[in-house]
Amino acid sequence: MVVGTARIRFGIAVRRQRNQLGWSQEELADRSGLHRTYIGQIERGARNISIDNMECLAEALAVSLSELLKSE
Amino acid sequence: MVVGTARIRFGIAVRRQRNQLGWSQEELADRSGLHRTYIGQIERGARNISIDNMECLAEALAVSLSELLKSE
Fold first, then answer.
1. B14-54 residue pLDDT tens
2. Which domains are delineated in chain B?
3. Which is nearest to A55 in space by CA: B56, B14, B8?
4. What is the ipTM of this complex?
5. Beta carbons of A6 and B70 less than 8 Å apart
6. Closest partner residue to B3 among A4, A55, A71, by Cβ?
């Protein structure tokens, strides 16, 4: 497993969960307390997100952090 | 779920996995490429660890990131 794949998997899972809820990135940003552009960067796997921010997203999406990091 | 609990759960899971392998913090530091004092801080939930470093630890411990973040 090459380092850096977890970011990509996490971003894909956040986007999938957000879309399932029918939310825009703006909506997820409001609910998680994070910035909209940051949400976009996370979904693209472009940011080395911290565990606290990962937890904010999981809580806003009402899904476990473990779930968001499950391999495909 | 209060933000900051994921750090604590992750730290506990890293310590448990390390102990199961019979490794010192030094050994895990060598295998993950992270500093020994940083390992100690992570295990105490004292650092807001990034996803890339979480992945380094999971890979060194030969366990999935999702596994390390499972709630008790």
1. 999 999 999 999 999 999 999 999 999 999 999 999 999 99
2. 5-68 (1.10.260.40)
3. B8
4. 0.92
5. no
6. A55
